[in-house]
UniProtKB/TrEMBL annotation:
This is Purine nucleoside phosphorylase. Its EC number is 2.4.2.1. It comes from Pararhizobium mangrovi. Residues 19-265 form the Nucleoside phosphorylase domain. GO terms for cellular component: cytoplasm.
């Protein structure tokens, strides 16, 4: 067990969550859905990655959603902050050591579909790793021989996907589904890059999540992921993209995503 997992377990007072969330830019308000929260700063956990990006609180919030024990990471470290695609490995490994079995990742993303406007929620059905980087590069250790060669054909768990669809339908939240393309950032994409992404089959673009999906599968966790749409891709309208827009628009779709996750956990995710 990692030192961070030992320190976190001691702070949770017997709470043993099987489900974890990672909350993206501007989505920290999702922690309001967590009842009886226990808050632990990343800085208080040995070796835990601390984000420098505004809109990321940098704390763990544990409690219950819909009666189900959960632990949420309010904020993440990005590849563009560190130059290390495995920057979130200590966090994902800590969750695994804590006993987490299912990881639900969230992010703020740009839409490549005019009929998926800002404020929408998209379940990530698959991804394209356009960055060319992989968090398992240089990894000598593995839980089993050749463990770094992680299969990604079913990276996004189908029972979890179906549970999310049912939860969205039950509460009347429109849940889009599509392919997420990971760009390294931190600069936003150009109009030409957005045209390319659309041609390659992407439905949304962003600067996170894909490394965590790979790491989670490496550590044997089941994965689901959702994007809150904060803008249309570059060149799809007349506005210039900014992180301020991301933080402003994320809570709009974040409310829909919080309602969906509450409904999911009320039934307890499979």
């Amino acid at each position: 067990m990692t030192p961070a997992a030992e320190a976190l377990k001691a702070r949770l007072g017997g709470l043993s969550p099987r489900h974890a969330l990672v909350l993206g830019s501007g989505l920290g308000t999702l922690v309001e859905a967590i009842a009886d929260p226990v808050r632990v700063s990343y800085a208080d956990l040995p070796g835990f990655p601390v984000s420098s990006v505004s809109g990321h609180a940098g704390e763990i919030v544990a409690g219950t959603i819909g009666g189900t024990p959960v632990v949420a990471l309010s904020g993440r470290v990005h590849f563009y902050e560190t130059g290390d695609p495995a920057a979130m490995r200590p966090a994902i490994e800590t969750l695994r050591d804590l006993g987490v079995e299912t990881l639900i990742l969230t992010n703020a993303a740009g839409s490549l579909k005019p009929d998926m406007p800002p404020g929408s929620v998209m379940r990530i059905a698959d991804h394209i790793n356009f960055s060319g980087w992989n968090p398992l590069m240089g990894t000598p250790d593995a839980p089993f021989e050749d463990g770094r060669f992680v299969g990604m054909s079913s990276a996004y768990d189908q029972p979890l996907a179906e549970a999310m669809r049912k939860a969205a339908k039950r509460i009347g939240v429109e849940l889009h589904e599509g392919v997420y393309m990971w760009f390294s950032g931190p600069s936003f994409e150009t109009p030409a890059e957005i045209r390319m992404a659309r041609t390659l089959g992407a439905d949304a673009v962003g600067m996170s999540t894909v490394p965590e999906v790979i790491l989670a599968r490496f550590f044997g966790l089941r994965v689901a992921a959702a994007s809150v749409i904060t803008n249309l891709g570059a060149g799809m309208d007349a506005s210039e993209l900014s992180h301020a827009e991301t933080k402003e628009m994320a809570p709009v779709g974040g409310k829909r995503l919080a309602a969906l996750l509450t409904a999911l956990f009320e039934e307890e995710a499979p």
